[in-house]
Design a protein that fits this description.
Elements lengths: L6 H15 L10 E12 L14 E5 L2 E7 L18 E10 L2 E9 L18
Parallel strand pairs: 3-5
Antiparallel strand pairs: 1-2, 1-4, 2-3, 4-5
């Protein structure tokens, strides 16, 4: 058990681990547990138009609300590909927990893209 003076350090470390690893730390009790649900996944900035977003972070839409994705995210997603998350919303099957404005994913399985735009808005050369 940490001493009183170590507690802030322990909490800070757990918060950092929670941000890096998704789900551990100061998030507290999840607001909702999501299991085996098909949701819409897209870029928080380019598709969902979430306020004050820098870059192209992945977000999910659950019950008409948008959440930044943390945790288990598929590697190799090309957000600016024609079927990328900056150009079109995608469907994915997810497991995880909602914590505040974030969805801490333990599984995010992208489904095949449908209706890929012939002329995508963003290309791999775009930086924003």
């Amino acid at each position: 058990m940490p001493s009183a003076e170590q507690s802030p350090r322990v909490c800070a470390l757990l918060c950092l681990l929670g941000l890096l690893g998704g789900g551990v730390g100061c998030h507290g009790k999840p607001e909702e547990r999501i299991e085996n649900r098909t949701v819409t996944v897209a870029c928080a900035r380019c598709v969902f138009h979430m306020p004050d977003v820098q870059g192209c972070p992945l977000a999910v839409e659950i019950d008409h609300k948008h959440y930044f994705v943390r945790g288990s995210v598929p590697m190799g997603l090309d957000a600016h590909a024609p079927d990328g998350t900056c150009n079109m919303p995608r469907k994915a099957v997810v497991d995880g927990e909602i914590h505040g404005d974030g969805f801490v994913a333990t599984r995010l399985d992208m489904l095949p893209a449908e209706n890929v735009p012939a002329h995508p808005k963003y290309t791999p050369a775009d930086q924003h």
